Amino acid sequence: MLGGAILLEVTGTLSLKASEGLTRWPWVIPVAIGYLGAFALLAQVLRLGMPVGAAYSTWAGAGVALTALLGWAIY
Description:
The protein is mainly alpha-helical.
């Protein structure tokens, strides 16, 4: 689930760039799905007992690294 949360957050962030400041409306849908889904899955990971420090640091660190790599490759 944590991996899914990371992928959804990266999808939301890359879609936010593609939306050009939320001015390209078709891109708003993957932004919303990405961020809402990421937080929903992160909440489930925490509910199942993973410590918040471990979950958040993994989610944030992997998300930043993957976003940087994919952003460089795509944009």
